[in-house]
Design a protein that fits this description.
Mean pLDDT: 92
Order of helices and strands: HHHEEEHEHEHHH
CATH class of the largest domain: Alpha Beta
Organism: Seonamhaeicola maritimus
InterPro entries: DDE_dom, IS_Transposase, RNaseH-like_sf, RNaseH_sf, Transpos_IS6
Function: Involved in the transposition of the insertion sequence.
Low-confidence stretches: none
Number of strands: 5
Protein name: IS6 family transposase
Helix content: 40-55%
GO molecular function: DNA binding
CATH superfamily of the largest domain: Ribonuclease H-like superfamily/Ribonuclease H
Amino acid sequence: MFKGHCFPKSIILQAVYFKFRFGLSYRDIEELMAIRGVKVDHATIQRWVFKFTPLLEKEFNKRKKAVGKRWRMDETYIKVKGQWRYLYRAVDKQGNTVDFLLTKRRQRMSAQSFLIKAIGNNGKPELINIDKSGANKHAIRVYNKRSFSKIKIRQCKYLNNIVEQDHRFIKKRILDGLGFKEFESAKRTLTGIEMVHMIKKEQLVSNKKSMFKSFYSLAA
């Protein structure tokens, strides 16, 4: 994974972790690394995040703990290059992150894409709680029809408070930084933020005592 890079794995992962954990700008991370005696350009750190995030996510998904069978599904808004994009997310009854997907539009196909991704990574739930969103309701009904499933739909707004609270953590992390200028970059950075958030919620199978060591173990 790290073969051919001028910097060792420990340095690369530390810089990438800083971006995901603390919502710093790339220039902030460049300064922090310089304080630690490592001279690396902020553009290089950005390339590391872009390159290694999908690889770390793949390993994370292999070791992610199983989630519950009752989900809370919702979407929130993320600004990318001055335009609103839509982040679909789901958590289980205990607040564990089920899955997430950043899309360019809020429509039925986006909700369906998210549902297919979430089920593909986590298995079928027995029930999904949603708000009054017609797109989410339609997505579940279409999935049930096409796959001969019987996922129950429950529309109760206050039961979705748990996922709405979880949205706030992710959005705060984004607001702490300088925002996103490209959609693909936003997708990969959000993936990293979600991964670290799940590590914090102890959703990664790991015997490491610290969050960073657990994150580091993904590249072991």
